[in-house]
Design goal:
Elements lengths: L8 H19 L5 E6 L5 E4 L9 E5 L12 H9 L2 E5 L4 H13 L3 E5 L3 H10 L8 E4 L2 E4 L3 H10 L18 E2 H4 L26 H10 L3 H7 L7
Parallel strand pairs: 4-5, 5-8
Antiparallel strand pairs: 1-2, 1-3, 4-6, 6-7
Length: 235
């Protein structure tokens, strides 16, 4: 008598394992993580939690989308890209605190570099032509040593920074870094290193045809108007 393999216990277990695998994959398709592992019998399993004492592979991980960097308005982004602001400060410095507060109140993105070590001091002197006065404000290539509110405001306005705060509500000022570690380069804030936003479109004012024709006629030379009327031009 011919023996079929459908009733073999091993085949039944294999069929049941395959069916369970398919159902499990379908049920766990929307899970945050899917783990894959093999048991001591060599059967592959899937699940949303790692198995105990068994090495497993993560097949899928749903990661939160990275936070989008805030986009500056066109006027502010253009100023930051053309003349980045760097502020050198130190601890227990009233002028440094006042200068920092001024920049924040006006909504100026800036990089703050602290001077607390000998290496920081050397970096400050290189940035300020050998001088060590603090605070030091750099607006592009312009330098203002010491805190003078009017001079700081003038330097910012000369670099076309908006007089009113235009920072997006989600913007966070960068944390201070040691001057020696920052180097001598002027870093532009990361939120504005990409292409500038599209400038606002200003529409052209169109005049009615009759008014445009009258204006064009007024702009013609007087001699041509006189000749057209049949009157000799005046000498």
């Amino acid at each position: 008598m011919k023996r079929t393999h459908d009733g073999h216990p091993g085949h039944r277990r294999l069929a049941a394992a395959l069916l369970g695998l398919v159902l499990l994959v379908i049920a766990e398709a929307a899970a945050a993580q899917v783990y894959k592992w093999k048991d001591e019998h060599g059967v592959t399993h899937y699940g949303d939690t790692p198995p105990p004492r068994v090495k497993s592979d993560i097949l899928k991980t749903d990661r939160p989308a990275p936070a989008r960097a805030p986009v500056f308005p066109y006027e502010l982004a253009r100023a930051v890209q053309a003349a980045p602001v760097v502020l050198y400060t130190t601890a227990r410095c009233d002028g440094c605190d006042q200068g920092r507060a001024l920049l924040r109140a006006r909504g100026i993105p800036f990089s703050e570099r602290t001077v607390n070590t000998g290496e920081d001091q050397q970096q400050l002197e290189r940035a300020n032509g050998g001088r060590s006065e603090l605070p030091l404000l750099l607006v592009g290539s312009r330098k203002v040593a010491g805190f003078q509110a009017a001079a700081w405001q003038d330097a910012l306005s000369a670099a076309a920074y908006p007089r009113q705060k235009m920072l997006p509500p989600s913007y966070q000022f960068a944390a201070p870094v040691p001057a020696a570690g920052a180097g001598s380069g002027v870093a532009t804030p990361a939120t504005t290193t990409s292409a500038l936003p599209t400038p606002p479109v200003r529409g052209q004012i169109k005049m009615p045809p009759d008014e445009a024709a009258a204006q064009a006629a007024d702009q013609q030379p007087r001699s041509r108007q006189s000749s057209a009327a049949g009157t000799p031009p005046t000498q």
